[in-house]
Amino acid sequence: MATVVDRKHPFKTSLSSKFLWLGLFAYLAYAFSTLDIGWNRFVLGLDQGARLVDRLFPPNFARWELLLSDLIESLQIAIIASVLGIVISLFVGLMAARNLMPNAISIPVRVFIALCRTFHPVIIAILFVKAVGFGAMAGILTLTVASIGFVAKLFAEAIEEISFKQVEAIRATGAGFISTIVFAVIPQVFSRFIGFSIYQLDSNLRNSTMIGIVGAGGLGGTLFSAFQRFDYDFVTAILMAIIALILVGEALSNLVRRIFQ
């Protein structure tokens, strides 16, 4: 039975809704009781955090050459992986669109896309580090897979929402499948595809600094090593470099938007 809500009194709900809220609060209380969460630990964490912040400043840029080298590597990993992933997603998304492809093609491709986004990039990075070794190669492969999982899925869904009037008009002229895609499908979804791609570039810039923690190149490995050495002033310098990387990504995103507007 559907929940009955009084229009005059929107907060007056049925008995089943009350039990639902009661169950939710009971579960939250149970979760807090089973996890190591407490006010004393929070207060202790504030004290330790204050000491950590004191050790973080001032930042140490003495090893600026290493910092710049890793920053450039992270940027290169993100850009190369984004380009590869976006190009591959263009074809994968087309094959996953159920209004263009038969189920024999679209279903396996959709399973492939789901697999690409099943695992967190760090887990994928661990697998590629084991497969191809430490360094940028593992990072590029990791972020390429992550790009396919995101961009191809949204691109396929965008294609499924197109108007088929343009498709039928192009087909009526005797155009083949490729011409139909180029002149009837792509123009309808191109702006959305550019939006997906820009978002994925921004995501890859952030992830390129994270996957390095497991050895997939970039700033992440240097950051992890600095934490292990308790070299907190250098950690601050690395974090500032990461912020600079994200700002560079914002500039690149704005540039791409201006080009394709």
Automatic annotation (TrEMBL):
<feature type="transmembrane region" description="Helical">
    <location>
        <begin position="168"/>
        <end position="190"/>
    </location>
</feature>
<feature type="domain" description="ABC transmembrane type-1">
    <location>
        <begin position="71"/>
        <end position="253"/>
    </location>
</feature>
<dbReference type="InterPro" id="IPR005769">
    <property type="entry name" value="PhnE/PtxC"/>
</dbReference>
<keyword id="KW-0812">Transmembrane</keyword>
<feature type="transmembrane region" description="Helical">
    <location>
        <begin position="234"/>
        <end position="256"/>
    </location>
</feature>
<feature type="transmembrane region" description="Helical">
    <location>
        <begin position="20"/>
        <end position="39"/>
    </location>
</feature>
<dbReference type="Pfam" id="PF00528">
    <property type="entry name" value="BPD_transp_1"/>
</dbReference>
<dbReference type="GO" id="GO:0015416">
    <property type="term" value="F:ABC-type phosphonate transporter activity"/>
</dbReference>
<dbReference type="GO" id="GO:0005886">
    <property type="term" value="C:plasma membrane"/>
</dbReference>
<comment type="similarity">
    <text>Belongs to the binding-protein-dependent transport system permease family.</text>
</comment>
<keyword id="KW-0472">Membrane</keyword>
<dbReference type="InterPro" id="IPR000515">
    <property type="entry name" value="MetI-like"/>
</dbReference>
<feature type="transmembrane region" description="Helical">
    <location>
        <begin position="75"/>
        <end position="97"/>
    </location>
</feature>
<protein>
    <submittedName>
        <fullName>Phosphonate ABC transporter, permease protein PhnE</fullName>
    </submittedName>
</protein>
<keyword id="KW-1003">Cell membrane</keyword>
<feature type="transmembrane region" description="Helical">
    <location>
        <begin position="109"/>
        <end position="128"/>
    </location>
</feature>
<dbReference type="InterPro" id="IPR035906">
    <property type="entry name" value="MetI-like_sf"/>
</dbReference>
<keyword id="KW-1133">Transmembrane helix</keyword>
<feature type="transmembrane region" description="Helical">
    <location>
        <begin position="134"/>
        <end position="156"/>
    </location>
</feature>
<keyword id="KW-0813">Transport</keyword>
